[in-house]
């Protein structure tokens, strides 16, 4: 009797190897990864506008999928990725390692207009449901940890990014108008109108237009909007 072949520890997705995880790569996420539809709108947008050699500022690191795609498929020079959830960082590191990604710097911090003291971040048994919002399902909180805050202008001066990729669950309406984004060539932003309303959406558009970027409909779909600089 021969031994059964070992199970593949990875899910193949858009040319990437995504490590299986009992709490992350489950259900709809697993299916979307396998079909290449995970974060499809954002991935399609960055694939269209990001260039080889770009420096990318990513706000909201997620599971490390987009940063890996940028490194492997778009061959960017560098990604600096902000992710507030400390429990996701070991998994993100495993995604990067599985794909030979060495040019992504993860920062477990929040980017805010003024910086300041750390803020409470509430960890839940469901990794992806963790947030700064205690009121949403408080019974599921298993631990509260402090997360540092970094000042937006300091980071923009340090990096001078070519590209912004932003998915920060509604905080975009407060953060993006506070920065000088004139260094950008393009931006891919997931809007959350259910939380920021029409006023917040308008604030994001105004911030990008004020930086000299123009809405680019060919790389936009639904709540994922892309802006680029016209030369």
Blueprint of the fold:
Elements: E1 10-13, E2 16-19, H1 27-35, H2 40-49, E3 55-59, H3 65-72, E4 78-82, H4 89-98, E5 104-107, E6 110-112, E7 119-124, E8 141-147, E9 149-151, H5 152-159, E10 163-166, H6 172-175, E11 186-190, H7 193-210, E12 213-215, E13 224-229
Parallel strand pairs: 3-4, 3-10, 4-5, 6-9, 10-11
Antiparallel strand pairs: 1-2, 7-8, 11-13, 12-13
What does this structure look like?
- With 231 residues, this protein is an alpha/beta fold.
- It is 29% helix and 26% strand.
- The chain has seven helices and 13 strands.
- It has helices spanning 27-35, 40-49, 65-72, 89-98, 152-159, 172-175, 193-210; strands spanning 10-13, 16-19, 55-59, 78-82, 104-107, 110-112, 119-124, 141-147, 149-151, 163-166, 186-190, 213-215, 224-229.
- Strands 5-4-3-10-11-13-12 form a seven-stranded mixed beta sheet, with helices on both faces.
- A hairpin with an 8-residue loop joins strand 12 (213-215) and strand 13.
- It is globular and about 60 Å long.
- The mean pLDDT is 93.
- It holds the Pfam family Methyltransf_21.
- Residues 75-195 form the Methyltransferase FkbM domain.
- It comes from Salipiger pallidus.
- InterPro entries: FkbM_mtfrase, SAM-dependent_MTases_sf.
């Amino acid at each position: 009797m021969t031994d059964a072949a070992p199970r593949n520890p990875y899910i193949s997705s858009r040319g990437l190897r995504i490590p299986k995880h009992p709490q992350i790569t489950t259900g709809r996420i697993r299916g979307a990864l396998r079909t290449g539809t995970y974060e499809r709108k954002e991935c399609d947008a960055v694939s269209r506008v990001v260039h080889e050699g770009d420096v990318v500022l990513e706000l909201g690191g997620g599971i490390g999928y987009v940063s890996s795609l940028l490194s492997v498929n778009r061959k960017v020079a560098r990604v600096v990725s902000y992710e507030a959830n400390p429990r996701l960082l070991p998994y993100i590191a495993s995604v990067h390692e599985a794909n030979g990604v060495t040019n992504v710097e993860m920062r477990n911090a929040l980017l805010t207009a003024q910086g300041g003291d750390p803020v409470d971040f509430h960890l839940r048994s469901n990794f992806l449901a963790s947030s700064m919002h205690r009121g949403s399902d408080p019974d599921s909180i298993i631990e509260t940890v402090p997360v540092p805050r970094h000042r937006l202008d300091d980071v923009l001066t340090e990096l001078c990014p070519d590209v912004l990729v932003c998915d920060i669950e509604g905080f975009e309406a407060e953060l993006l108008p506070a920065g000088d984004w004139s260094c950008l060539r393009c931006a891919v932003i997931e809007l959350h109108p259910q939380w920021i309303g029409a006023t917040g959406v308008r604030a994001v558009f105004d911030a990008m237009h004020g930086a000299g970027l123009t809405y680019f409909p060919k790389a936009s779909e639904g709540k994922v909007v892309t802006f680029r600089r016209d030369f």
